[in-house]
Task: inverse folding
């Protein structure tokens, strides 16, 4: 068991910089998910920690020990990759035992560890099989088993579910979460999939273009994204964005664009006053735009707008409405009882307490959603919930 610390870590390749000034403290036993779009530097960050890539600048510590110059095999970590690369001529047992045999571990101890891992993963009955006689999901479990038998201080995962079909991905996701609870070890997990990040992480670190954007619990990132990038990346379907101007009418602040006229909630007026007369970017999540006849009871601060319905998608438990107002297209997730037809006009209610506002130049958040549910996930120290690299 161990904590992991990145201290101003950068990675330069001849072609450019893959990771810049990356600083992050990962607590012992945490399940930290590093998420971001393809090419943003996630694998490079993980590979520097694993010892597979040299660190250009900065320090990485596992526990108290700086590992910059420690060879990969002595770092007490195990890594699971997307391609699990099992040895095809070896049985499942031998695939899991191989790394331990290389280290000249006594046979009885190897048996104890392989049997233990097989039991945790529910693959005891497969130990004599060769990889070709396994399904994709079973092979991925063997790859997990190979990491578990090492009994490392830190587990690293680099997109381990990408080769599995959608259903198996959801199932294996839950198994990895259970594995984390059972082993009580530090997990660092890389993915481009924000749904995996939201569902598995105790804390998420979002990266873009080689830089850390924000660190926090899933709920914190969802409700209080620090900037436009995090707001647009976390959440599916994604947050809607509108270019609006802050106006004042009879002492009340509004956000306006062609076809849109929304009231700023009183509790946000203080922060918005600095933007009076200026353009800002308004962010509203699809679930915060309701059909005006199906607004949940007790919702304060709603602003209604008449808009055109372009397309409807019935999802069963809700309807997705693709809407347009003043040239901006946006999505609302509304009550399935709202029988809305494409091509018609509809009145929708924006739940303005949940609005996000971003500065058009810095793209930093000026206002984020007012939380109406308590954040029950493991809270980090407050000074770590927002990190803006640069
Ligand atoms: N060995 C390398 N040599 C040169 N550039 C590399 C190398 N490995 C990665 N990169 C570059 O670094 C950036 C980050 O890559 P990577 O860490 O693999 O991203 P991710 O895992 O987030 O998709 C990319 O632009 C990639 O092309
Ligand atoms: Mg990668």
Result:
């Amino acid at each position: 068991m161990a904590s992991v610390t990145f201290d101003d870590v950068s990675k330069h390749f001849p072609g450019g910089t893959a990771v810049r000034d990356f600083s992050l403290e990962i607590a012992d036993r945490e399940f930290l998910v590093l998420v971001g779009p393809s090419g943003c530097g996630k694998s490079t960050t993980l590979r520097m920690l694993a010892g597979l890539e040299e660190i250009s600048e900065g320090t990485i510590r596992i526990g108290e020990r700086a590992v910059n110059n420690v060879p990969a095999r002595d770092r007490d970590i195990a890594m699971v990759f997307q391609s699990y690369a099992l040895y095809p001529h070896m049985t499942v047992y031998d695939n899991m035992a191989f790394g331990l045999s290389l280290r000249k571990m006594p046979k009885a101890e190897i048996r104890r560890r392989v049997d233990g891992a097989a039991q945790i993963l529910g693959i005891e009955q497969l130990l004599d099989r060769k990889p070709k006689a396994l399904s994709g999901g079973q092979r991925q479990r063997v790859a997990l088993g190979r990491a578990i038998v090492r009994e490392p201080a830190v587990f690293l995962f680099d997109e381990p579910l990408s080769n599995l079909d959608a259903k198996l991905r959801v199932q294996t996701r839950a198994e990895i979460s259970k594995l984390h609870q059972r082993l009580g070890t530090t997990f660092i997990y890389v993915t481009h999939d924000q749904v995996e990040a939201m569902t598995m992480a105790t804390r998420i670190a979002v990266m873009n273009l080689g830089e850390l954007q924000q660190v926090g619990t899933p709920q914190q990132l969802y409700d209080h994204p620090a900037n436009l990038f995090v707001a647009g990346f976390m959440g599916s379907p994604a947050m809607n964005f509108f270019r609006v101007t802050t106006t004042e009418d009879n002492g009340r602040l509004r956000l306006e664009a062609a076809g849109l006229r929304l009231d700023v909630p009183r509790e946000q007026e203080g922060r918005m006053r600095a933007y009076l007369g200026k353009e800002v970017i308004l962010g509203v999540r699809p679930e915060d735009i309701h059909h005006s006849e199906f607004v949940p009871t007790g919702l304060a601060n709603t602003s209604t707008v008449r808009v055109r319905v372009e397309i409807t998608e019935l999802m069963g438990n809700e309807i997705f409405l693709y809407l347009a107002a003043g040239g901006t297209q946006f999505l609302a997730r509304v009550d399935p009882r709202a029988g809305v037809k494409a091509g018609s006009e509809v009145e929708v209610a924006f739940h303005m307490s949940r609005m996000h506002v971003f500065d058009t130049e810095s793209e930093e958040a000026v206002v984020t959603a007012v939380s109406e549910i308590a954040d029950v996930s493991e809270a980090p120290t407050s000074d770590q919930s927002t990190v803006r690299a640069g």
Q: What stands out?
A: Confidence is low (pLDDT under 50) at residues 374-390.
